[in-house]
Amino acid sequence: MGYGWYDRLPRITDLRFEIDKGGETLVLGGSDLPGIDSGTVERLDLVLTISGPAPETLHIPAPVAIEYDDGLFWSFEEANILLAAPTAVTPAELVDLLDGACFCASDDREADSWDTQHDRFLLDAQEMATRLLLGDEAALLERLRAVLAYRTQWFVPEGSRFVAVIGREAMDLRIERVSASS
Question: Which of 37, 84, 117, 127 could form a disulfide with 44 if both were Cys (CB 3.0 to 4.6 A apart)?
Answer without folding.
Answer: 84
